[in-house]
Amino acid sequence: MESRSRLSIICSHLLPQSPSPTSRLSSSLTSSASINDAAGDTRNHQLDCVFCRIVRGESPAFKLYEDETCLCILDTSPVSPGHSLIIPKSHFSCLEATPPSVVAAMCSKVPSIGNAIMKANGSDSFNLLVNNGAAAGQVIFHTHIHIIPRKARDCLWTTESLRKRPLNFDQEASQIVSRVREQLSSISPDDEKGSGI
């Protein structure tokens, strides 16, 4: 039941105008959900993943850019005109599961794609966003980067009207810095290859 609910949310995010996306997928959901529950096989997650279906040409999408590593498509529930997603062609559930070389390939496309989107829709800026994990708002568990075109005073984010607090140079900030540095120092040289760290 949880798999069916999650797929329904994903389908409504990607195919909002589509007539009852869950009815089309209900038969495949039943069989694949039991396989996923029993085996936890990553390959089956790829079969159910809407982005993987787009990469395989099994689901429609407005493609803006494609190369051997990644694909850029329009988000079907955009927060602004031109809101796009850069996705890797291989399935990785989250940013930390994505190899640094793939993240680098995706990020290297941001300036050219972002500039093309801005010129095409007359915006003057864009936000680059990754929702990494459920608590951060990730809905589709296939790594993706949002490019969200912006115009002056469009007030897309409610946080833009919030008063910001300056960083306090206190013990709490020092402890955070120490803990992050400790985590970074535990990264092995093999983990760093291709990451630019």
Automatic annotation (TrEMBL):
Transmembrane segments: none annotated. GO terms for molecular function: adenylylsulfatase activity. The active site is at 144 (tele-amp-histidine intermediate). A motif (Histidine triad motif) lies at residues 142-146. Gene3D superfamilies: HIT-like. The lineage of its organism: Eukaryota, Viridiplantae, Streptophyta, Embryophyta, Tracheophyta. This is ADENYLYLSULFATASE HINT3. It comes from the Eukaryota. It comes from Salix koriyanagi. PROSITE patterns: HIT_1, HIT_2. Residues 50-157 form the HIT domain. It holds the Pfam family HIT. InterPro entries: HINT (IPR039384), Histidine_triad_CS (IPR019808), Histidine_triad_HIT (IPR001310), HIT-like (IPR011146), HIT-like_sf (IPR036265). One of its GO terms (biological process) is sulfur compound metabolic process.
